[in-house]
Amino acid sequence: MEKQKYAVYVRVSTDKDEQVSSIENQIDICRNWLERNGYEWDEDCIYKDEGISGTLFLERPAIQLILEKAKKKEINMVVFKSISRLARDMKDSLEIREVFAAYNVRLISIEEGYDSFKAGKNDISFEIWSLFAAQYSRTLSAGVSAALAAKVRRGEHIGKTPYGYDKVDGKLVINETEAAVVQKIYGWYNSGWGFKRITQELNDRGIPAKLNPRWQVTSVQRLIQNCIYCGDFILNQYGTVKVGGRKKQIRNPEEQWLIFKDHHPPIVPRETWEKANSKKHKATRRKITPWNELRGLMKCSVCGCNMVILQGKVRREAKTGERKYFAYVKCSSYRRAGQHGCVNHVPIRYEELRELVVEKLQEKGQTLTMNLKSEIEKLKEEEIRNLQRKIETMSEKKKSLVDLFLEKLITKEEFEQKRNELDRELQYSEEELFILQRTEHVQQNEQNIKEAFEQLENTEQDLYQVFNTLIDEIVIEPDGTVNIKYTFQQPVQV
């Protein structure tokens, strides 16, 4: 038997049942090929990317892990059912092949009968099959779009059922109870109420949203701006583009939209919707949103939600007459739902918080230079220990799960569902542990942190990237206490 240094790669793009069963099909095909060619089967050599598109290279942890193992010469062969399972983007397919070729790793695509060792470096069959896989993905996408458009033309609704409607035989019908609420929302908004006031009123009256017990500001805003309430439906309003190996949703130009007028029964008259969404009406409400360099880092200590910036009242300087805007930090959950969402923090001005954070970072930068590497290594070691404990705990849970099933305390369906959940969590933790244990991890972190501290010398520039490199999170208490957790040190209170 050959020495076990191979990897079996399998992928499905959705979590639908028919695709999940496809995982087993791919494994069976690969196992059959391996055993027929004299290899001993090993379940631990399977690497799965589940529910991930073949056009997303960087977001596939399993393929990234295989590439790392190839670089470390921990594997010498990768087996997969077909090239479309490896990637559906031609550029990614060729890039993956080049990496494996550089480290003398053999590629086997069973369906196409492709073997990189037999084909040699100049064989074009891999490129041709990769082109077919990429073209298939585009053709499939176009076919799906055409099928969706045909459904909409027949009066069917695509997507989630919006508030105010029910879905009957694929079509939207008015839910009278919810429709009355929609009409009130438009009435309030057109009479001068803002999104926040409407949200507060709905929650005070105990009116539930479609799927949540509480309304949020963003929910009210989307409802008012959605032309579905005047009877129209827009298809192809949003699309996706690939940026740096990842897909990003974008808003398509209006000329690409497919607008279906009077597609379903309206809840509000078209004139009412147009008034709410007219530029003149919106202009009276527009506020300047301050730039937030600490976005995503500030957290509420009570609910864990992000702290965001709210624009305060405009003040005019007595001497110069200059208009000044003051920005304050507020819990996003409280902002969306008021006291129904969270508590109201004491007012903290954003500029003062930023100055405090910069000051504390500069102090750290003066004292940390000599011990930076050891601090990062300590944090890394602690993360590794936590991950190892987590992996051990999940492994024990898997063993206990088998006992529960054998003792008939859980059904077969419950056993398989829980086992699959644990397997996915285990795989993610093991991949994270693998990356942390790489020797270059500390070196790269040390270099990034040193460069970030150097950029702190100019506090007038945009420090968003600097803050994200040096700070893990900033936890803000309701009384205004600020706790900073650094990426290179244990958290301290300031």
TrEMBL record:
Signal sequence coordinates: none
GO molecular function, one term: DNA strand exchange activity
Organism: Aneurinibacillus thermoaerophilus
Keyword Coiled coil carried by entry: yes
Domain of life of the organism encoding this protein: Bacteria
Protein name: Site-specific DNA recombinase
Coiled coil start-end: 377-462
Domain Resolvase/invertase-type recombinase catalytic: 5-155
Chain ranges of the Recombinase domain: 162-287
